[in-house]
Amino acid sequence: MAWEAVIGLECHIQLRTRTKMFCECEVVFGDEANSHVCPTCLGLPGALPRLNAGAIRMALRLGLALGCDIRHESQFARKNYFYPDMPKNYQITQYDRPLFEHGTLPVVVEGEAREFALTRIHCEEDAGKSFHPERTGDRSRSRVEFNRAGTPLLELVTEPVLRSPADCAAFLVTLRRLVRALGISDADMEKGQLRCDANVSLRPEGASLLGVKTELKNLNSIKGVERGVAAEIERQRRALDSGERIVQATLLYDADHDKLAIMRTKEQAHDYRYFPDPDLPLLVVSEAELEQARASLPELPWRRVQRFVAQYGLPPYDAAVLGDSRELADYYEECAAGLDPKFVANWLMTEALRAVNERAWDVARWTAQVPAARMADFLGRVARKELPGPLAKQFIGWLADEAGGVDELLARHGVSVKGTAEDLRPIVKAVLDENPGPVAQYLAGKTVTMGFLVGQVMKKSGGQAVPTLAQQLLIEEMAARS
Question: Which residues contact 278 (CB under 8 A, 6 or more apart)?
């Protein structure tokens, strides 16, 4: 039998606030364990939560960007369950009255523009983190770290409208791009700032009823989500083809070994015994707050990508790469002013991003080290053939690692670009004198030898000749000699 996959995602977005959701503890990654905790986020008796207004302002930006229905009076609830990294034995979240419902995320999947419907987005706090001995291997007991407990989260839940692992990957790439553009999250999956659970079920192709779903928990990379969903689809397909019954359960995916393991049978909503949190009042959002949030929205990433295609004539792929982050898109537009947009795109996507990756930098560090004006000056000279290609590629590293303008860097490295006819003509004559055979072949009509002759000029000039000028002078000199 042919089966169709039905997938829904639950995405947890850590907000880029200074403090936690219900207390004044700082949100910091990588500090000493349990150094950012207080009676409130540790759930000590008598401690009372106080809502972080900045987190709500960030949430409003996401809800508006996705066209969600916004509830003017939403409610926090207690989700009750025991787990060592949940200090209070309940999580403050939203249940039947979430802040946002519905909305869509526009996504391009394998070149096709689609829109994935959302169920809801609600506000909640994060749990802490457990370190188990089988993972860390340095002691016989598990450890619990509460610095993350109470961190502001948005949980975004899709409708079951995704159909493939590729859908899931494209959705997460687009969501990550959006929250970064909105400035509400760094969405670094390695740091747990964007996490994803996937609900997967199979049904016969053409059927309308949903099959029994399983949930893959805490997938921590986009590639891991893609591979984990693919593995679960295949597991369910094999089970159904052999006549087995799918049991609703929660699974863990081991990306290192590409293996699935059932963690527990899946809880239902009533297992959590939700009830309104008595310590928190209704969350009321006014029209003035909505207007303020609406006015703060930047150009949305998918609209910027569309504009890059229309305004600059970039291929969709180039536009998507340059629009991947707000910082890179801004940087591109500053660099491209007055230059060929495609030429600038090529250099940023290849050489600049290569230098960023080699240094394990982010785009923000690159733009701080190589401001757009400095990069544009360099690219302008490359475009005008004042810097030959091999030297220009080497120059990217100098820009990244050293201070100074183009002329200062050339002088510091002892480079004198042979960019004029007067500089190159003696070298061209020497190459023609030393290579009579290729010269004769060229004059006899074998034009491919021109590449060899240009290469000899580049070699003799130490890579400092401009290839187009070298070719022009070679043609002139050979014509004069013939």
Answer: none
